[in-house]
Automatic annotation (TrEMBL):
Protein name in the entry: Exostosin GT47 domain-containing protein
UniProt-recorded Gene Ontology molecular function terms: glycosyltransferase activity
Entry's family note: Belongs to the glycosyltransferase 47 family.
Classification lineage: Eukaryota, Metazoa, Chordata, Craniata, Vertebrata
Exostosin GT47 domain boundaries: 12-216
Glycosyltransferase is among the record's keywords: yes
Length: 222
């Protein structure tokens, strides 16, 4: 993957991230607006593409389910028309959903070229180690920040925090993601690793109910 990323600008200017200007008439869902705002509000942001080490599209790529109202049409041609695209080199693409019901796939609907993919629920077969980024599937209602602006200057090692890992979500008793989520209880210890799941997903969840569902639902709803 070394040939897919040009480190020259990073060595020259440091780790700077450029966000493409929003194109007139293009819709951007609130979730993706929050992603872009977080980047633009960080110390790594630059408004000068000539200083950038990493590029992020303003075109909304989070939801690539064709049945979704947030789905952006003609994304392939829109991306290819960007003069800085360069076949995706030094670009990072964010994606939460891809494919559509009932046959969900990991196809985002356009050629990402040499771009890195920051994606939720990415399979081990398609994940490219040391290149792609696995991200959590977050709700559109999830707050963008935890309150007041932080003033982190240095990373603390070991980190000063109570929890090492926290997850709360639906189990998906069958289908894509079910094997992983149904096994989360193995690493849950209720102390620094807290993984809470509910079986209540979809209309037919009770038909697929397993022996852990009642216990998991109770813990989830506390």
């Amino acid at each position: 993957m070394e040939s897919c990323f040009d480190f020259a600008q990073c060595r020259k200017n440091g780790f700077k991230v450029y966000v493409y200007p929003q194109q007139k008439g293009e819709k951007i869902a609130e979730s993706y607006q929050n992603v872009l705002a977080a980047i633009e509000g960080s110390r790594f942001y630059t408004s000068d593409p000539g200083q950038a080490c990493l590029f992020v599209l303003s075109l909304d790529t989070l939801d690539r389910d064709q049945l979704s109202p947030q789905y952006v049409h003609n994304l392939r041609s829109k991306v290819q028309s960007l003069h800085l695209w360069n076949n995706g080199r030094n670009h990072l693409i964010f994606n939460l959903y891809s494919g559509t019901w009932p046959d969900y796939t990991e196809d985002v609907g356009f050629d990402i070229g040499q771009a890195m993919l920051a994606k939720a629920s990415i399979s081990t077969e398609n994940f490219r180690p040391n290149f792609d980024v696995s991200i959590p599937l977050f709700s559109k209602d999830h707050p963008r920040t935890g309150g007041e602006k932080g003033f982190l200057r240095f990373n603390t090692i070991p980190p000063l925090r109570k929890y090492m890992l926290v997850f709360k979500g639906k189990r998906y008793l069958t289908g894509i993601g079910s094997d992983t989520r149904n096994a989360l209880y193995h690493v849950h210890n209720g102390e620094d690793v807290v993984l809470l799941t509910t079986c209540k997903h979809g209309k037919d969840w009770q038909k697929h109910k397993d022996s852990r569902c009642d216990r998991d639902n109770t813990e989830y709803e506390k």
